[in-house]
Design goal:
The protein is mainly alpha-helical. The protein has a two-stranded parallel ribbon with strand order 1-2. It contains 23 helices and 2 strands.
C-alpha cells in the first residue's frame, strides 16, 4: 500500500503523467520503423552492397568462409539466404531487427517516463524517415547488426538504471543481456572493448546485482566459445585468412615510412618484412584520413596476417623513436569522432546509393544478377537520393552527418538529466557510446559514418527524451515490481 501511495504521489507531481499509453501508441513504435524500412527496402531492392558486401556474398555463394570479415556475420547471412537466396533477405532481416530494437527502446522510455505518446511517435517517424538510417539499414554491412546490438545494450542499461537493478534479476533479462554482449563481440573484431567496459561499469555501480551480471558474462562467454569452436568447425571457416590486430597497425606504420623517417632503428629482418608488404624503395601512399589509399596499390597483407607481432614491434619502435608522427596521425584519423565540423578537402564516407561495380573484379561478375539493384520504387529512390545529396551540398560543415555532433548532443542531454535529477548512476548509460568512440579513434581504417553508426542511433533515440525528462525533473521510479 505504501509503494502504491508513493507511486501515486509521484504521478501527481509529474506533469507528463496521464493515462498510460494505449496499445496503438506502443504498436506504432514498432510499425512506423517497419513501414519506413520497407519503403527503403523496395526503393533500393535487393539492398545496397559495397566491396565488403560482395566479398561476403562470394563467401556465401562458394561456401568458402574466412575470418577476414567476422565469420559469425557471414554465417548469419548464409543462414538467412537458406530462407531466400537473395541479398534482399539479409536487408529485410536488418529492417525487422531495427524495427524491433527501436520499438522496444521507445516503448521502454515511454513506460518509464510516461512522456506523451505523440512526442515519441513523432520521434520514431523522424528517426525512421531519416535517409541516414533508412539507407544504412538496407546496406549489407556487419556495422548495421553491430550498431543495433549496441543500441539494444544501451536500452538494457537504461532499464537497469531506472529500476535500480531490479530489471536484471529476471533470468530472461540477464540471458538477453549476455546474448547481446556476445553478438557485439562476434560481429566486429573491435567490438570487445564495448563489452568489457560495459560489464566493468555495471559491476562497479551495481554490486548488489553482481550475481546476475556474472550470469550474463558466463552466457556471453559460452555463446562466443560455441560460435568460435563448433560452429566455425561445422561451417569449415578458413581461420588462416583472418583479420589481425596487425592490419590496424599498418596505417600508422605507413605514416612513418611516408614521412621518410630514418628506418635505421629497425632490424634487417623488420625492413625485409616491410618490403614484402610494399617495396620500401617506392613512395608509400598515405592519407591520415584513409588507410585504403595504401591497400589498393598492390600491397600484400599476408605477412601481416601471418605475423602481426612483428608489425606491432615495428610500430612500437617507430612510435618511441618519433612520437610526434604517431600523435599527428591519430589526431587526424580520429577527427571524425570528436571534431564537430567537416575539415576542408577531407572525404567522409556517409551512405552509399549505388552497388559495387563488379567490372572491377571480373571473378565476381557471375553475381551480377544477384547483387545488382532492381528498384521496385525507382521514383522514391530518386527522391531519397536527391534529398540526401541536396542536404550534403547545403550543409557546408556537414553537421547533420558528423558523428561528433550526435555524440555531444547525447552527452549534453545526459549531463543535463543527471544534473537535474541528482542520480549519477545514469552516467552508466554512456558507457557503450564512450567505449565505441574511443576504440574507433584508434582502429578505424578511414573516416566513415558506418563506424560510428551506434552513436547516431543512441543519440537519436535518447537525446530528446533525456532533455524532456530533465526539463521536467522526472525522477524515474527506481523500483517497480513489474519490470518488463
Amino acid at each position: 500500500m505504501l509503494t502504491r501511495a508513493e507511486s501515486n504521489a509521484m504521478d501527481i507531481e509529474n506533469p507528463f503523467v496521464g493515462r498510460q499509453s494505449n496499445g496503438l501508441i506502443k504498436l506504432l513504435f514498432y510499425i512506423i520503423p517497419l513501414i519506413m524500412g520497407l519503403i527503403y527496402w523496395l526503393a533500393f531492392f535487393p539492398g545496397v552492397m559495397s566491396f565488403d558486401s560482395v566479398n561476403q556474398w562470394d563467401q556465401i555463394a562458394t561456401f568458402k568462409i574466412t575470418n577476414l570479415h567476422p565469420a559469425f556475420h557471414t554465417i548469419l547471412e548464409w543462414l538467412l539466404t537458406r530462407i531466400w537466396y537473395s541479398p534482399a533477405m539479409i536487408s529485410l532481416f536488418q529492417i525487422v531487427l531495427a524495427s524491433l530494437v527501436i520499438g522496444y527502446g521507445l516503448s521502454s522510455i515511454q513506460k518509464s517516463s510516461r512522456l506523451p505518446g505523440t512526442i515519441l511517435v513523432a520521434l520514431v517517424f523522424l528517426i525512421s524517415a531519416n535517409p541516414l538510417v533508412g539507407v544504412m539499414d538496407v546496406t549489407l554491412w556487419k556495422d548495421v547488426i553491430y550498431s543495433f546490438a549496441i543500441l539494444l545494450l544501451t536500452i538494457f542499461l537504461f532499464m537497469i538504471i531506472r529500476s535500480d537493478g531490479v530489471w536484471i534479476v529476471k533470468p530472461l533479462h540477464f540471458s538477453l543481456l549476455g546474448s547481446t554482449l556476445a553478438i557485439i563481440w562476434l560481429t566486429r573484431f573491435n567490438g570487445w572493448p564495448v563489452v568489457v567496459v560495459s560489464l566493468i561499469t555495471m559491476g562497479l555501480l551495481y554490486k548488489k546485482n553482481i550475481k546476475q551480471i556474472a550470469f550474463s558474462t558466463l552466457i556471453g562467454v559460452a555463446l562466443i566459445i560455441f560460435v568460435q569452436v563448433p560452429i566455425f568447425s561445422w561451417f569449415k571457416v578458413n581461420r588462416a585468412v583472418k583479420y589481425t590486430y596487425g592490419i590496424t597497425l599498418i596505417h600508422p606504420v605507413v605514416a612513418y615510412v611516408n614521412s621518410k623517417t630514418d628506418l635505421v632503428i629497425l632490424t634487417d629482418y623488420e625492413k625485409q618484412y616491410l618490403n614484402k608488404i610494399y617495396p620500401l624503395k617506392n613512395n608509400w601512399p598515405y592519407s591520415c584520413y584513409d588507410a585504403t589509399v595504401f591497400y589498393y596499390e598492390g600491397t600484400t597483407l599476408n605477412p601481416v596476417i601471418n605475423d602481426p607481432f612483428t608489425l606491432a614491434k615495428i610500430f612500437t619502435r617507430l612510435a618511441i623513436h618519433d612520437p610526434k608522427i604517431m600523435l599527428n596521425h591519430y589526431s587526424c584519423l580520429s577527427s571524425f569522432v570528436w571534431q564537430p565540423n567537416q575539415p576542408q578537402n577531407v572525404y567522409l564516407e556517409t551512405i552509399l546509393f549505388d552497388n559495387y561495380d563488379l567490372d572491377q573484379r571480373p571473378s565476381w561478375q557471375k553475381y551480377t544478377y544477384d547483387v545488382s539493384q532492381k528498384s521496385i520504387l525507382p521514383q522514391v529512390r530518386g527522391w531519397i537520393e536527391r534529398i540526401a545529396k541536396a542536404e550534403w551540398n547545403r550543409d557546408v560543415f556537414k553537421l547533420m552527418w558528423r558523428p561528433a555532433i550526435y555524440m555531444y548532443l547525447f552527452l549534453a542531454s545526459l549531463a543535463f538529466f543527471v544534473f537535474r535529477t541528482g542520480r549519477r548512476k545514469w552516467w552508466l548509460l554512456s558507457a557503450p557510446l564512450a567505449a565505441q568512440s574511443i576504440v574507433m579513434m584508434f582502429t578505424a581504417p578511414l573516416q566513415a559514418l558506418r563506424y560510428q553508426y551506434p552513436v547516431y542511433l543512441i543519440a537519436m533515440l535518447f537525446t530528446l527524451p533525456l532533455l524532456l525528462m530533465g526539463w521536467k525533473k522526472m525522477k524515474l521510479d527506481p523500483v517497480e515490481k513489474d519490470i518488463s
